[in-house]
Amino acid sequence: MEEMDYTIVLDTATIHKKVEELGKRISEDFSQKPPLVLGVLKGSVFFLADLMRAVDLPYTLDFIGVSSYKESTESSGKVEITFDLSSDFTGKHILIVEDIIDTGITLDYLTNHIRDRGAEDISVAVLLDKPSRRKTDVKIDYVCFEVEDAFYVGYGLDYQGRLRNLPYIARLNPA
Ligand code: PRP
Predict the structure, then answer these.
(1) Residues marked as catalytic
(2) Contact 91, 69 (CB under 8 A)
(3) How many whole angstroms separate alpha carbon 96 and alpha carbon 36?
(4) Which residue ranges have their beta carbon within 6 Å of ligand 1?
């Protein structure tokens, strides 16, 4: 198996401190309207598991699968729903949990999809925000870390399906 060269940019303690803080904020902000948390597969699951254990509310949880990267480090620009529980979002307060927002194309597609299904309101929590790459105007309510343009792996983020299990976030170095 090919060896990947990467540099750690956010260590485990830094990530967990930020995620705990965010959990507290969400607990306060949603205290009057426990959300339906929507985890976006697959990358968000590590972040989501830590974040939502730090949220002290009677929320419910669903997942939706979306893919746009395929096998490349560049977004293809095409969004595809890969897994859909077909929840009824009517009247619900949706909290989308994503690992990374890059061009924003996926989030834009997803929010339209959820809005079409009758959501009352939609909020977004993201681990990494890469604003320099934005191609659409998307609203993000909670950002753990704003990062510069690079390819990141670890804590859920993958390179060709691998490296999600790294306990930190690292920047992939070009070969
Ligand atoms: C990543 C991420 C977002 C999307 C963001 O998913 O989880 O869904 O890309 O990119 P964008 O803002 O340019 O649309 P990916 O396709 O890598 O799938 P994965 O989470 O299953 O690894």
Answers:
(1) 102
(2) no
(3) 8
(4) 40-43, 66-69, 75, 98-107, 158
Q: Of all atoms in ligand 1, which is nearest to the CA of residue 68?
A: 16
pLDDT tens digits for range 19-64? 999 999 999 999 999 999 999 999 999 999 999 999 999 999 999 9
**Which of the listed residues 46, 63, 64, 69 should we mutate to test ligand 1's pocket, taking the one with most ligand atoms within 8 A of CB?**
69
- How far away, in angstroms, is 152 Cα from ligand 1 center? 11
Q: What is the pTM of this model?
A: 0.93
Summarised one tens digit per residue, pLDDT across range 131-145 is 999 999 999 999 999
Phi, psi of 46 (to 5 degrees): -70, -50
pLDDT digits (tens, 9 = 90+) for 69-89: 555 555 566 788 888 876 789
**What domains sit in the chain, N to C, each tagged with a CATH number?**
22-149 (3.40.50.2020)
Alpha helices in the chain (DSSP H): 12-29, 45-53, 105-116
